[in-house]
């Protein structure tokens, strides 16, 4: 790019924008709420009868199965045709399956494991939870092993894999010998999670009632929405001779309110890195900020209320002293208030430069814990909301349309939770622990888990089993009905990106509108990195901000 003084001809990149997260907002607020979402969805029912927690969670699985059933069957039939296998009968309900006949059953995967091995459910996330993966730290890595082992499927310990619908369930045998045409490698129980909708091809044994699996098929990536195109994009007029493509900047883990836990060891400063990012966005002499048409903050905007050992010690002291009056020293809300104030000021500075900002709430934000999460209340960010045309408070998950380019994403908790149920053994003799008893276990990578959610057309398959979600009776808001061009998650350990083709395969270049760019956005507080996505080509780049001397 050209570096020079700003002139009157300099403008910012522009991309027409349309928020599309209303379908999440409808399910993120109780119908009796006065937040606006509740009023919009109100249908005249009484507050008591319309409250979401009056519904059963079983309806969520029924709605999910109904939305994905047809696509699963189509993929199963096409695969059988390609393999030259005789046509299998599609069974409408599991209870109606015929023994000994090659059949296609569609249902929800259920991994039935010994409850004694599963980490206990607690009121707050602990080291055995998805929060550990979303906000990793060095002192937590050692304690991840036991929770991961407890979630690893092991048939020798009595674990059973089922396929379930409204009529009943059938046990699946992933190791059955069904001939040379078997594809049981597709049915690795440690590569699927409870809640995933799939079509299973196989035969039910007349003696045991167990279904010997021939192959398993998922819904696949959703179809491209009709009328969706990237042709409407236009670049930024940097000067009379140059025209750039609009760039979407993705950042997560800003961590306003405190420095990163690693800063004390490295001597770095998170606040200084945030200032460097701000200069990059607002000063045309320092970078390509003028090409950025929008900034999306993907969760992690503020730090946790109590994050350090000193904070925890102060809390204990307050309890031991029988403190009856909260003070700034012991009141965790004071830290949240300060963090929000710092976040509000920081976002305002970006908005003042004319750059639109979308804010996705995350784990530490003062909003509901159950997914979908509501947008932050306007009173929490009073300065930012003054920029009515530039600032958007989004739900979590996030969905929007930038000139025909569909963007879908979240703060990353959905994928972090899924990774817990996709453990794998580490290879190599050196991976045995000190006692030589157990092989170390690692979770699936963030990009692989994100890719799987696209292939099964569901953003949060582990909800409501382990990911807290609102119950819904008519539909499942996390089912992908149309294909996103950009699909991201925030708060990852490192940057990862992958381009996915029409059928879910990894490709090198985006040849048409059927491609999806998967992006794992690294936590800014841990890495100092942000991701730039070209909305025309779907190419990705990483910009690192480091105040350390080489």
Topology:
Blueprint: E1 17-19, H1 22-28, H2 37-41, H3 47-50, H4 58-82, E2 89-90, E3 103-112, H5 130-134, H6 145-150, E4 160-164, E5 169-173, E6 197-204, E7 211-217, E8 236-237, E9 243-244, E10 247-251, H7 263-266, H8 270-282, E11 292-298, H9 309-320, H10 332-352, E12 357-360, E13 391-393, E14 398-402, E15 405-410, H11 413-420, E16 424-425, E17 441-442, H12 446-455, E18 486-492, E19 496-500, E20 506-507, E21 516-522, H13 524-527, E22 529-534, E23 540-544
Parallel strand pairs: 2-3, 5-7, 10-11, 11-12, 12-13, 15-18, 18-21
Antiparallel strand pairs: 1-14, 3-4, 3-6, 4-5, 6-7, 8-9, 10-22, 14-15, 16-17, 19-20, 19-21, 22-23
Helix pairs in contact: 11-12
Walk me through this protein's architecture.
This protein is α/β, with parallel strands linked by helices. Helix 11 packs across helix 12. It is elongated, with a radius of gyration of 25 Å. The N terminus is likely disordered.
In short:
With 550 residues, the chain is of the alpha/beta class. The protein has helices at 22-28, 37-41, 47-50, 58-82, 130-134, 145-150, 263-266, 270-282, 309-320, 332-352, 413-420, 446-455, 524-527; strands spanning 17-19, 89-90, 103-112, 160-164, 169-173, 197-204, 211-217, 236-237, 243-244, 247-251, 292-298, 357-360, 391-393, 398-402, 405-410, 424-425, 441-442, 486-492, 496-500, 506-507, 516-522, 529-534, 540-544. The chain has 13 helices and 23 strands.
> Sheet with the most strands?
7 strands, mixed
Low-confidence stretches: 1-9, 31-47, 123-128, 135-143, 176-184, 234-242, 322-330, 429-436
Q: Give the tally of β-strands.
A: 23
- Strand arrangement, largest sheet? 1-14-15-18-21-19-20
Helix content: 10-25%
Q: Overall pLDDT, averaged?
A: 78
- What value does the Rg take, in angstroms? 25 Å
- The outline comes out as elongated
Fraction of residues in β-strands: 15-25%
How far apart the termini lie comes to 25 Å
This entry's quaternary arrangement is: single chain
Put simply, the count of helices is 13
Decide which structural class fits the backbone: alpha/beta
